[in-house]
Amino acid sequence: MERTLVILKPDTVQRGLVGEIITRFEKVGLKIVGIKMLSPDKAHYHHHYENISKMASRRGQKALDVTLELMMTGPVIALVLEGIEAVEQVRKMTGATEPKAALPGTIRGDYSHISLNHANAREIGIANIVHASGNLEEANQEVEHWFTPEELFDYETVHDKFTQPR
Predict the structure, then answer these.
(1) What is the mean pLDDT of residues 140-164?
(2) Which of 23, 27, 89, 156 is the most buried (most CB within 10 A)?
(3) How many domains in the chain?
(4) Cβ contact 32:26 at 8 Å
């Protein structure tokens, strides 16, 4: 089973969409093995977005700066989800990073609308509801960065009955 990190961003918390988003993950059989609400400091976010996912290298320093600023606007909900090919499943469900490009039916396609051009013109971060780990290596590093082993739980769900060998 894979584990992946999901962050429900400040715009999700502030809009009261937390329950709806979590429900979507649970409905497909992903298991929550860790969850918490927190307001990390800038250093925590910098490690997440630059040291792990290399945002400045990929998109430039300005993109990193506005993302850090956006993430500091309120609390977030961090989740560790577990399931078969969980990283790919969550990425498919969240949709394209730019909300305008996200297909209807995806989380970003259904709950966000800002375009990259709009955000860039205003020099603001793109409020796109959720962060999802990009690949398994990144997911493992992010889970370790956001959660201690004691904050992760192992338990059986009804879905486990259909995904585990007998």
Answers:
(1) 91
(2) 89
(3) 1
(4) yes
